[in-house]
From TrEMBL:
It is found in: Cytoplasm. Belongs to the IMPACT family. This is RWD domain-containing protein. InterPro entries: Impact, Impact_N, Impact_N_sf, Ribosomal_Su5_D2-typ_SF, RWD_dom, UBQ-conjugating_enzyme/RWD. Keywords: Cytoplasm, Repressor, Stress response, Translation regulation. It comes from the Eukaryota. GO terms for cellular component: cytoplasm. It comes from Caenorhabditis remanei (Caenorhabditis vulgaris). Residues 9-102 form the RWD domain. Gene3D superfamilies: Impact, N-terminal domain, Ubiquitin Conjugating Enzyme. SMART domains: RWD. GO terms for biological process: GCN2-mediated signaling; regulation of translational initiation.
Amino acid sequence: MTDSEQRIAEIESIAAIFPDLLEESTEKQLIFKFDRNISMTITLPDDYPSTSPPIFELNGPYLRREQKEILHNNLNDIYVENIGFPVIFNWISLIQDFIQDLPPDEIETSESDSPDDVANSVIPEEIDDMNIQHGEVFTDRKSAFQAHLAVVRSKKDVDRVMQILLSNSKICRATHNITAYRYTGEVNGKLIHYHDCADDGEHGASSKMLELMDRMKADNVMVVVTRWYGGIHLGPDRFRHINNLTRQILSDNNYGLKKS
């Protein structure tokens, strides 16, 4: 079998064995959602499995650093022991066993956070020195989404906004905090435009947010869309929700409006 044929056969097998874990799949990429707010995105190179290993991105906001290192090392060990052969089934089984062995109080989940709980989540004013604006909570099939916006004029501002948001326990426990920002700074008398984004495990979502901000010409602003996964796969709808909330909070704060 060619590499392409082996990839297709492996993906079909994984989808049949782990339908509740596989949130999204193409011939080149798989996204898995596990218990305990752990997710993994696997990218398959053209020459996998014969030559190159799969590339994985692991997201587990409540895992300690040493736990993440153990998991990374074990995943790499499995590949080394099976060079030239499909390894995704073994990787998924390893993560399931790892989660099963975690003590019940080792890590918190967000499943107990209802949409009402999320909506009532308030960041104390005494630590919100960036005047962060919060959009309405949107829910779809038990997943909750909320956009946050702040004025930023430097990377220091961006870091401070994330520090403030993550100081809120419900936001910190979210499955994803997807981020995009744009600001303009002056260097040696020249205006320099800065922009960047971060998926936080929701692959491809932040670049769509940044593209939208660019089209709206929203400058000196940062948007974070928080998602609490509710256990039901949303497929491409989740990207639509993230973009809609980004557009809404920008518009609500007078970004992207036509000037008369």
